[in-house]
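Q: What residues go here?
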């Protein structure tokens, strides 16, 4: 990685647009690390990748992601993206707020085709923990639960993560996903998966069960998912979908629209 001059995030800061692409080889490798089959997407990109791609667009524009934790994101696929299709990543920081654990940062991120069509939107809100405030609770207003009760949900697949899997999936830029010391420093017992990695399991289930090629999801990261966790995918078809561990919601998504 080239040397980057880091800056503090401020509201109104705009990213310099950059070209991005998800290749067949990249998707196959990363989904295999998740225990998922890329062939099930039939030549299209799993839109979950654009969460991490958007974060790295911020990194390339001087906004460090080290130690940051996803709290919520929207993931809107206006139309499916073909593997190997070139898109332009754009981003703007909308707001920065001091919270008991550090700062919350709201960022609008979107991806356009060569003709300027917006094909993916992935705005997010993340926590920038302050090491001096480890142990403090509170990262801003907590959105109400999407799923109130988990007992009657429809269950899909179950998964067991390993540290080796998570390290294969993770990329440079935020070592709490692959280094024990960094995770402990941030207040976690072990490395946690990136939010986008968890969303792969939600999108895979939706793609298989609904054959939907466009969607609008509001994704909430309720609890950390550690690199040795077991969880199941469950849904209230088709209002909400979630990852559960022992009946507790880890990541959940409100399904605003399926097309």
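A:
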């Amino acid at each position: 990685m080239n040397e980057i001059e880091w800056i503090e995030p401020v509201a109104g800061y705009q990213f310099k647009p950059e070209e991005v692409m998800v290749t067949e080889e990249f998707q196959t490798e990363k989904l295999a690390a998740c225990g998922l089959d890329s062939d099930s997407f039939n030549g299209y990109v799993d839109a979950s990748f654009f969460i991490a791609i958007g974060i790295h667009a911020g990194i390339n524009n001087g906004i460090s992601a080290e130690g940051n934790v996803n709290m919520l994101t929207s993931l809107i696929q206006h139309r499916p993206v073909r593997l190997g299709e070139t898109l332009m990543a754009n981003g703007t920081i909308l707001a920065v707020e001091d919270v008991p654990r550090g700062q919350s940062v709201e960022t609008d991120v979107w991806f356009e085709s060569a003709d300027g069509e917006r094909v993916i939107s992935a705005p997010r809100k993340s926590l920038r923990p302050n090491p001096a405030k480890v142990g403090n609770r509170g990262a801003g207003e907590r959105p109400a639960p999407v799923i109130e009760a988990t007992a009657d949900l429809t269950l899909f697949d179950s998964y067991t993560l390993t540290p080796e899997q998570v390290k294969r999936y993770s990329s440079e830029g935020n070592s709490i996903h692959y280094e024990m010391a960094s995770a402990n420093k941030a207040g976690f017992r072990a490395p946690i998966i990136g939010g986008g990695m968890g969303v792969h399991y939600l999108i895979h289930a939706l793609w298989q069960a609904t054959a939907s090629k466009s969607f609008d999801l509001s994704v909430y990261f309720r609890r950390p998912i550690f690199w040795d966790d077991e969880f199941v995918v469950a849904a209230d078809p088709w209002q909400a979908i979630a990852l559960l561990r022992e009946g507790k919601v880890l990541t959940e998504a409100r399904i605003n629209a399926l097309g």
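A: Context that may help when evaluating the design: The first strand starts at residue 18 and ends at 20. The first helix runs from residue 24 to 34.
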